[in-house]
Design goal:
The protein has 380 residues and is mainly α. The chain has one domain. It has 15 helices and three strands. Strands 1-2-3 form a three-stranded antiparallel sheet, with helices on one face. A hairpin with a 2-residue loop joins strand 1 and strand 2. The chain is globular and about 55 Å long. It starts with a helix and ends with a helix.
Length: 380
């Protein structure tokens, strides 16, 4: 049963006026805020002496992350306080602005860590690919709502969606060398189309060429081939391409059941690359132990599950698809990040929502969470 079928069943249920949505809203909001707080603590705990030589202070990264969290909370309050239906009016403009940002990165962007993904705005760097996720979800929810009576028409739904996601995905995967984000954007589109009720045979027409393109991009770049080699044989490449995942697993193992305590592990000494961003969960597992890691997983699962439930009982089809898209987005990002940390997926550089450092990613995730909360608050 698709999300829209569940939505129609929920709207037809005469007993669907329980106080559940208010508890769902509070559970989701509480989980988001607790994860943000955990991220701030982990950013402080992951501060390392290397920052002294780079920025003159061991707490420079912590200060940046605290600023991003503050901006993220402001973004969350902004979107949660406004009717989600207002966003569909600017959906085409939002998607056009996101694509323009991707083009500007191609022309004027700067590189970091071997990838050209950011625009320098003076006070901070902007990553348009993260904004593209939100723009895609809003635009696709509006489009599928408008054409919900033509979902079995490949020329009215499937091909237009393919055309709309192909351009940003190619720009992100090829020009920005960010295959992980491109794969997530394509998977979000597939998830939303499935939720709307697009036939599986049409989804296959999108999935097969997408997998082929993904395989091509994965093997076309030497650094991606290195990550794949490091994924399949991390022990044999523990000082090379498998170094990051090997050190991440060592941190998780070092944490044990109760953890080493805040700032008592080896991550803050620089042994775990990207400890405050891609591999923040390794810091959580080491310093807070199995108990802390499970607590973070429970909070993340609460957001995803309450998001999908919100999609089932949303006030209208647009809200149902919007909630489904945001929930799929969060689930995929969590799955890809944690899979890389525990060595079950190749490392992609995708952040852990609400926990990892990363200005644009954190702020956009918070804005999307605000939309999801607004839908949950209006659901009955």
């Amino acid at each position: 049963m698709t999300v829209l079928q569940n939505y129609r069943s929920a709207q037809a249920d005469p007993h669907n006026d329980s106080p559940g949505p208010s508890m769902r809203y509070l559970a989701m909001l509480g989980s988001i805020l607790l994860l943000m707080l955990t991220g701030v603590v982990m950013a402080l705990a992951a501060s390392n002496p290397a920052s002294v030589g780079q920025d003159g202070s061991a707490f420079s990264e912590f200060g940046k992350h605290a600023t991003h969290v503050t901006l993220g909370i402001i973004a969350l309050l902004f979107t949660v306080g406004r009717d989600y239906r207002l966003w569909r009016r600017i959906a085409p403009l939002l998607l056009a602005a996101a694509c323009l940002g991707l083009v500007l990165v191609l022309l004027f962007g700067y590189s970091s860590g071997g990838s050209r993904r950011w625009l320098d705005l003076g006070l901070f760097g902007l990553q348009p690919s993260e904004i593209t996720k939100l723009a895609l979800v809003v635009s696709l929810a509006s489009f599928l709502d408008q054409r919900r009576y033509f979902l079995d028409r490949i020329d009215r739904v499937t091909l237009p969606v393919l055309a709309s996601i192909a351009v940003p995905c190619v720009l992100i995967a090829h020009q920005q060398r960010d295959l992980g984000t491109a794969a997530i954007i394509g998977s979000i589109a597939l998830g939303m189309m499935w939720a709307a009720g697009v036939p599986f045979r049409h989804l296959g027409l999108l999935l097969v060429p997408s997998l082929g393109a993904g395989l091509f991009f994965a093997l076309a770049e030497p650094f991606r081939r290195g990550r794949i080699i490091g994924f399949f044989s991390p022990a044999e490449n523990s000082l090379g391409d498998g170094y990051q995942v090997t050190q991440g697993l060592a941190s998780l193992s070092n944490g044990g059941f109760r953890g080493t305590g805040l700032s008592a592990g080896h991550a803050q000494w620089g042994w775990v690359p990207e400890a405050d961003t891609d591999f923040v969960f390794a810091v959580v597992g080491e310093q807070l132990g199995f108990v802390g890691a499970v607590a973070v997983l429970i909070l993340l699962a609460t957001i995803v599950l309450t998001g999908f439930r919100t999609a089932q009982i949303a006030p209208d089809v647009f809200g149902s698809l919007l909630a489904a898209g945001i929930s799929v987005w969060f689930f995929l990002q969590i799955f890809v990040n944690l899979g890389g940390v525990v060595g079950r997926l190749p490392i992609t550089g995708v952040t852990l929502p609400f926990v990892s450092s990363g200005g644009t990613s954190l702020i956009v995730n918070a804005a999307a969470a605000g939309l999801l909360l607004n839908i949950a608050r209006q659901s009955k």
